[in-house]
Amino acid sequence: MRKSRKIMLFALIGIAGLALAFRNSDKYFLIAKNLDIFAAFYRELNTYYVEDLPPDKLMQTGIEAMLEETDPYTDFVPEEELDELRFMATGKYGGVGASIYTEGEWTSITDVYEGSPMDKAGIKAGDVIVSLDGKSAKNMEQEEVSKYLKGTAGTALIIVLRHPLNNTEKTYRILRDDINVKPVSYSGIIRKNVGYIKMTQFTEGSAEQVQLAFEALRKQHPALGGVVLDLRGNPGGLLEEAVSLSNIFIDKGKLIVSTRGKVKSWDREYKTSLLPIDNHIPLVVLTSRSSASASEIVAGAVQDLDRGLVVGQRSYGKGLVQTTRPLPYNAKLKVTTARYYTPSGRCIQAIDYSQRNDEGEADYVPDSLRKSFTTAAGRPVKDGGGIEPDARVESTILSQVAITLLRKQFIFDYATRYYYAHPETPATSTAFVTDEVFEEFLKFLDGKDYSYKTRSEEALDIFRSTATREKYYDGLQKEFDALQAKMKHDKKQDLLRNKAEIRQLLEEEIANRYFPQAGRIERSLSWDRDVEEAVTLLQSPQKYQQLLTRKN
To answer: Which residues are the signal sequence here (predicted)?
Structure first.
C-alpha cells in the first residue's frame, strides 16, 4: 500500500512538472510566434506603405504602446537619456548649476547653486537668458534651454544674460562642471533642543550625509532632545540608502524591508548591519503626498518598529522596486521587478496596476480591501495606501491669488527688485516683509494682470455647463446670475484677505536671494504646521509615548 502511494505521489509530481513545462513552453511559443508576426508585419508595412516611415519613431511608438500595459515606473531609456538615470542614482549631473523658469518669451535664472560655475561667475537669480551659444533664447522652450545648460564637465557654454532691472546685457563663458545636488538641503536647530534635517533624495552616499548632519547637531547641541527627519516631497531613490539611513536610528539586525517578485531568486530581506548612531533619541519623520519609494521604506520601518512617529500627510504609496536591465546600443530597460514590504509585512502600494477599468486606467486600492497589520508593539497599521501618519496634519492649500502670483512670477520679480535695492547681506534673523514692504508690493502689482478664477467660480462654471447640457439653465439663469454677482471677487480685497500667506511667500523668496537654498527652507519653518506638530510632540514626552503605544 505504501509503495503504491509513493508511486502515485511521484506520478502526480511528474504530471504537475509536465503541466508547468507545457505552460512555459506555450508561453515561449506565443512570444516567438508574435515576434515573428511583428517582424513580418513591420517588413511588409515598411516595404509597401505609400509614405516613408521613420523606423526609430515607429519602434518608439511600439515600445510606448507596450509600456502602457505596465506601471508608470517601467520605462525604456535610450542612450541619450542615460544621464537622467545616472542623476537619479548619484545626484550628479554635468551642467552649470542653475534652475530656470520660462514665462512668456523669456527664460530667467531662478536659483544658482552654491559653488557652481554659475555662482562663481557671479550670475544672480532674476537674470534673463538672451542667447545660448549664439542662438537667441527668445521663445525657446524651457526644455531646450535646459539642454543647453547641461553637458559634459569641462565643455564651454557661451551665454548672454540681461540684467532684470537696467536691461544691460553681458556675455559669459561658463565651463560646465559635475554638479552634485546635496541630498541634505538643510539641517539645524528649529526650536529649543529640537534638531531638523531636510532630505531631498536617496542617492549614493545620502545616508552618510544625514548621519553627518545628525552627528553635527548632537556635537553642537549636547542637550539635543529630539530630531525631525523631513522626507516631504522626497521621491525616493536607492533602496540600500533607505536601509542605511534607517540604521542611523534603528538597532543592528532589524528587518527594514523585504522585496518579493516573480523571480524568486531575487527575493531579499534587508536588515540593519551596523550598530545605530542613536536608537533612543525621540524621532519624528515628516511625510507628504509626494513622499515615495525609499522615503516610504524609512517611514514604514520607523513606524512598524515603533522607533518614532510619522507626522504629516499620507505618503504616495509606491511600494514597487525597479531594476535596470541592459539593452543593445547602450539603452536600458528600467523595469519593476518586485514589491517591497515593511517590517510588519505590509505592501503599501496604493494603486493596483494589475487591475484596470474599461478605459484601461488603474485605480487606488479601495479601503474595503486594505488589510490590517500590527507594529512591533501591537499598534494597528494598514497596507495598500501609503504610510498613514501617526499624527495627521491637514495639508496647506494656497489661495488662488497666491497661486497666480507665483505662477506669473510676480513674487519672484518683486524679490529681485528688493534684492538689488538692498544689496548688503543682512543678518539671518532679519524680517524682510514689513507692512511697509507689503504696501510696496501692492503698488508693484498695480497695472499687472493677475486675473484668476476662485475655486467657487470654477465650481459655478461647471454647474452652469451641466445645467445647460441637461436643459435646466434657462429656468435657473436669474438665480445663477445673482449668485455669480455675489461671488464676484475683488482682487485687491483678495490680496488683503490672504495677506499672511502672501507675506510668507515673499519672505521665503527674498530670504533665498541672500541665503540660497537654505534661506527659503529656514524661513518656511517658522510657519510650517507639520513642523509645529512634530515639535509639539517631541517636547511633550507624554503625548509622544501615547501615540507610540496606542492600540486603536
So the answer is: none
Could you write out the three-class secondary structure of 404-419? HHHHCCHHHHHHHHHH
Q: Label residue 464 exposed, middle or buried (CB < 10 Å: 0-12, 13-18, 19+).
A: middle
Cα dihedral 111, 113, 116, 120 sign? positive
HSE-CB at 523 with a 13 A cutoff on CA atoms is: 25
Q: 3-state DSSP call for residue 501?
A: helix
pLDDT for 409-437, tens place per residue?
999 999 999 999 999 999 888 899 999 99
Cα–Cα dist 537/532, whole Å: 9
User: Which cell numbers in the block locate residue 113?
Assistant: 547653486
Quote the pLDDT of residue 6.
Answer: 45
- Residues 64, 365: Cα–Cα separation, whole Å: 25
> Residues 6 or more apart from 455 whose CB is under 8 A from it?
400
DSSP-assigned beta bridge partners for residue 285: 229, 310
Task: Kindly state the average pLDDT of the residues 332-338.
Answer: 95
Instruction: Name the residue type at position 16.
Output: A
Nearest CA-CA partner of 95 in 77, 113, 110, 122: 113
Distance between CA atoms of residues 90 and 176, nearest Å: 18
Asked if the model's pLDDT at residue 185 lies above 70, the reply is yes
Could you tell me which of 288, 236, 190 has the C-alpha nearest to residue 524?
Answer: 190
CA dist., res. 122 & res. 100, Å (int): 16
The answer for 320, left when phi > 0, alpha when psi is -120 to 50, beta otherwise, is beta
Question: Cell 511588409 maps to which residue?
Answer: 44
C-alpha Rg value of the chain to the nearest Å: 28
Residue 270's identity, in one-letter code, is Y
* Cα dist from 449 to 105, 255, 429, 454, 460, whole Å: 16, 56, 33, 15, 23
Alpha helices in 127-286 (DSSP H): 142-149, 206-220, 239-249
Any idea which residues carry the catalytic annotation?
293, 304, 318
| Cα–Cα distance measured from residue 541 to residue 282, given in angstroms and rounded to the nearest whole number | 9
What is the full DSSP assignment across 380-412?
EEESSSS---SEE-PPP---HHHHHHHHTTHHH
| Cell output for 204 | 549614493
Whether the CB-CB separation of 214 and 196 falls below 8 Å is answered with: no
Give me the half-sphere count of Cα atoms (radius 13 Å) on the Cβ side of residue 51.
3
Q: What pTM, to 2 d.p., does this model score?
A: 0.87
Exposed/middle/buried for 187, CB within 10 Å: 0-12, 13-18, 19+?
A: buried
